[in-house]
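pasting for the record
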Amino acid sequence: MADKTVENAETVERENGRKVRTGIVVSDKMDKTITVAVINRKPHPLYQKTVHNTVKFKAHDEKNDAHEGDTVEIAETRPLSKSKRWRLLRVVERKK
């Protein structure tokens, strides 16, 4: 079954309404948890200069597959712990 997605300006939304984001793993020191930094770039409303906003998400990594520096795709999920509300979908690119 094909995974249907709808693209917005900032995030990709799956058919089930949950957000999917792409970011870089900044920490993999915890067991089965990674910290992913997602960078949002958008032009400033008045000056039109590109403004960067970085948000960190904790994501569940069941197999400890992702490592620091990897580019990964994460998806929204039910609360798994106090701060963990995302899960790892796939590793897009490994660190070189």
